[in-house]
Amino acid sequence: MDNMLEMYLYETNTLLEQLDELLIEAEKNKDFTTNDVNEIFRSMHTIKGSSAMMEFSTLMEIAHHIEDLFFYIRENGLDSMDESHKNDLFSLMFQSTDALRSEVEKIENDEPLSTNIDPIISNINSFLQKISTPEGGSSNSNSDSGEKTESAAPAADEQAIALINQELAGAPISDLPYFIRIFFEQGSGMEHLRAFMIVTALKDIELDFKFFPEDVETNGDTSETIIENGFYVALSSQEDIEKALRVIKEQNSVETYEVMENASLKQEKETHDSKKEAEETGEDAAKKNTTSAPAALNGAPAKKNTTSAPATHSNAPAKTSLISVSLSKLDSLVAIVGEIVITESMVTSSPDLQNLKLDNFLKSARQLRKLTDELQDIAMSLRMVPVSGTFQKMNRIVRDMKKKLNKDVRLTIVGENTEVDKTIVDSIGDPIMHIVRNSMDHGIEENVEDRIAAGKDPQGEIILSAAHTGSEVIISISDDGQGMDPDKILAKAERNGVLTKPASEYSQKEALGLLMLPGFSTNEEVTEFSGRGVGMDVVKKNVESVGGTISLSSEVGKGSCTTLKIPLTMAIADGMEISVGKSMFTIPIANIRQSFKAQKDEVILDSNGNEIIKCLDDFYPIIRVHELYNINTEITNIEDGILLWVETADKSYCLFVDELLGEQQVVVKPLPSFLSNFNIKNSGISGCTILGDGNISLILDIRTLYAAFYNQY
Amino acid sequence: MSADTVENTTFDGTMEVNTSTERFLTFSSNGLNIGVSTNYVIEIITNHMITMLPLVPDYVTGIINLRGQIIPIIDIRLRMGNPSIDNTSSTCIIVLNINSVQIGIIVDAVQQVMDIDQSQISPVPVENQQKLINGMVSSSDRSVILFLDCEQLVETF
To answer: Domain range for residue B97?
Structure first.
């Protein structure tokens, strides 16, 4: 939870920063560009979404209204506003971002969020009204937001009550007046047994109490209920609560607990029961104020009191445990560490030291080597992070949406340990979130009956997977929902006027591609999660910014799949080091099927004089690397070197190399862009890597190497 | 680097530092004295292990690992159509950053850093236009310095 809060704060702060920069720049030019409008719209969309997820309703409300405003502006074009409107818009935007920022600051400082955000929201709405009134025709979004104002005003109070009600909804029915609600530390496991331990401990001090769920001792499934709703202990009096709390505090892995009054009981008391009992309740409350732990009675008139001794430390976001470091600093760190490694080997193998007997020196040198190796490992690992963090975030989204949309869906995660460069992880977080939301919202069928009728498992499934292939990371998000209907997409596109040719001329693939245009959405209704068509164009933009590609595939009734292919800019790959003459090359292990020595008489010549060899009943061409690349080597006899049987998607052949040097994990680096002048990408080299001793090894691309070989003739 | 060699800049007796002067690093290649603006120069390195690249023009010698950065190296002799020579003790690589493209050039020897008044730079006579040269100046000791056209060096082909 802490982790998510940190991510949320970091993300929101970054977005607000970007927004500020954008606004300042735009104000200088006294105008918004279409890009600016789209950008603001997207940022607000993200803030709205993540705030809703974290249940920071004020932030969500503000962002939501700004989004509405920019939705209107985007639909109606910037020209609909005159100069004074634009000026007003600037000041309004600065005001709003300030409001957002102060709310974020409150979260950071663990203060309660402000409950009164009406001024800012009514400002936004009145501005929206002002710019939309001149043309009466397009009052659609206007009236829409008008309604929202009305509902927004009392929202704060209502929300507080709703929150409590919701909490109590999870509470069990009991005739005892007090509850202690206990949450265990996240991920502590075996929650039901931990709960049972509390039960036994409470029995030991001979308290009269009840607990819910009641079958914690025998039923392992109660763990989940406890994680979600907490473990409830019902008690009859204030003294018992204190005794119980003393016991609970001593228990391990209790994260938070709170004391609550039984709301239903209290209501009954207030309305039906005699005056005396009502007084008693009052007395109870008074007593509580004086006797309960000095830690925290925040005196709120609400029906809930929070006694949160350990909570104070768990709620405060651990702001110091994460710092953001600029990637350029990281890069120079990695570079300098690389230099140290080289210098170290230069010093220790210096020719000046040869033939000297230096016991102490060698001992220290060994120590130094060990340390520099460790340093290098750490420096390298700094940039690489597993995608699991991003993937885990989706669990929460699926869970929340599952509840809100009332759909039964499970999320299956495959390959979450795949390590990817930090920049890539950052840029794929948002896209994946949007795609998962789309899948939840539009992909999975509305009704379980539809799924059963289609012969599918009533429970929907979304599969999120990540895998390394030779030169790319492939991330796919697939669902087994209703799929996308190209005809519907085309119809919608026609209405939105984004078609560039007659609808009948679009292929299925092109039709799916329309989904990624800005402002396109097939959903008729705008929901909290999706439906405004910002999703897919954000996805495309973010993926393309790291040089990746995105493709959609879908089959009506079977589901759809979104695949992101992202090039490894710095991903780590397993490679086989080989040598040819004085050059070293790395071949991705994934491409190697086998390595073997060949006899001269096994090699056959075809009609063009190309060498062919038989492996497992099939014939494969031999490519001699030294000939292809004109490298001088003494090993030209097929029996002296070694053959590597390699394979890619559609090609399979043998490479003749001098020697295998060993398997190694390598960090893939792209070749300098200057070299693309020489068409280096098509000569069978996909990148390079720096070896431990500072030398460079070129990474062979098995697919293009084959093409390069055949293009020679 | 440039600070150490300031005394070299007094070759023409005047040491005016005004906006029209530019500082150049001069090197020799195939008997020519060539200058490159120090704005482009990052550093001078010697004895670096060059990894050869296959299937590229011969003047692209390869790539080097400079503190974790991969930098392509071209031989300025071959690039200008002159024969290459074996490395000597004075052979070195000048690493340049030209409009954020990093590239290293192999030169026979590095000479000095000098301030040159831009008004003195004359264009190359059209009749013997040379590749990669965009100006020349004659210095006080009657030697001629040619100026390397860095932009052309990294131009796409």
So the answer is: 6-154
The CATH number assigned to the domain with range A387-567 reads 3.30.565.10
Q: How far is CA A333 from the centre of its chain?
A: 26
Q: Torsion angle, CA of B97/B103/B109/B112, rounded to 10 degrees? A: 0
Q: What DSSP element (H or E) covers B131?
A: none
Q: Which residue of A has its CA nearest to B154?
A: A674
Q: Which of A331, A683, A697 faces B55 most closely, judged by CB atoms?
A: A683
Q: Name residue A615's beta-bridge partners.
A: A618
- Statement: residue A355 has pLDDT above 70: yes
Which residues are A647's β-sheet partners? A652
Q: ipTM score here?
A: 0.80
Token digits of residue A180: 């202690």
Retrieve residue A83's tokens.
């100069």
Helices (H) and strands (E) in chain B, counts: 2, 10
Helix (H) or strand (E) holding A660: strand A659-667
To 5 degrees, how large is the angle CA A80–CA A81–CA A84? 165
Q: Which fold has domain A2-153?
A: Four Helix Bundle (Hemerythrin (Met), subunit A) (1.20.120)
Cβ of A674 within 8 Å of Cβ of B72? The answer is: yes
What is the spatial distance between Cα A11 and Cα A392, in angstroms, rounded to a whole number?
A: 16
| pLDDT band with cut points at 50, 70 and 90 for residue A320 | very low
CATH code assigned at B121:
2.40.50.180
Q: What is the reported pTM?
A: 0.45
Amino acid at residue number A540:
K
pLDDT score, position A394: 81
Strand partners, A414: A465
**Which of B144, B157, B34, B46 has its CA nearest to residue B95?**
B46
In a mutagenesis test of the B interface, which of A339, A625, A674 is the best target, namely the one with the most B β-carbons within 10 Å? Answer: A674
Domains of chain A, by residue range, sit at 2-153, 163-315, 327-385, 387-567, 572-711
